[in-house]
Write a structure and sequence with these properties.
It is a single chain. By secondary structure, this protein is mostly helical. The protein contains eight helices and four strands; from the N terminus they run αββααβαβαααα. The strands form two sheets. It has a two-stranded parallel sheet with strand order 1-4. It has a two-stranded antiparallel ribbon with strand order 2-3. Helix 2 crosses helix 3 and helix 6 runs antiparallel to helix 7. The radius of gyration is 19 Å and the shape is flat. The mean pLDDT is 93.
Length: 152
């Protein structure tokens, strides 16, 4: 539905169970979108695809949604919760300071010019370089072993 599609647009990662269907139904009831859909959807899938989704009001299966960039991955319905937990655990075991900076950089990039984005990247990199995780990551990289990040 439109409400669910609105919510998932704000997520960093979207896993969908096989058989899930997606629809931005506003036009089907004779209205325009609300709650930021016209801002977020073009940024997620591009302007032409956003116009197609919004103006035609079609329903999309998981294969189409994945192809359009609405979702990251399709998983069997019985495995959805386990897959979501595995993804969350993978992120939690990562260099969380760096992941936070990456998220802010990517999300903020759409509102900055290149010079401002490069400044933001430089500041984020310097912040990451001061963390214990950066030292752990470098040691693991040069030691050709997996890193065991601490989140610090």
């Amino acid at each position: 539905t439109g409400a669910g599609l609105r919510l998932m647009r704000q997520a960093d990662f979207v896993l969908a169970a096989e058989g899930t269907r997606f629809n931005l139904a506003y036009v089907n009831v004779g209205t325009s979108c609300d709650v930021g859909a016209s801002w977020a959807l073009p940024r997620l899938v591009g302007m032409r695809r956003a116009l197609e989704i919004a103006m035609l009001g079609d329903t999309y299966d998981t294969a189409a949604a994945e192809r359009m960039g609405l979702i990251n991955r399709v998983v069997p319905a019985a495995e959805l919760e386990a897959e979501a937990m595995a993804l969350a655990q993978r992120l939690a075991k990562g260099p969380t300071v760096a992941l936070g900076h990456l998220r802010r950089l990517m999300r903020g990039s759409l509102d900055r010019d290149l010079a401002s984005q490069l400044d933001a990247e430089s500041a984020a990199f310097q912040s990451c370089a001061a963390t214990a995780d950066f030292r752990i990551g470098l040691d693991a990289f040069f030691g050709k072993k997996p890193a065991a990040f601490t989140g610090r």
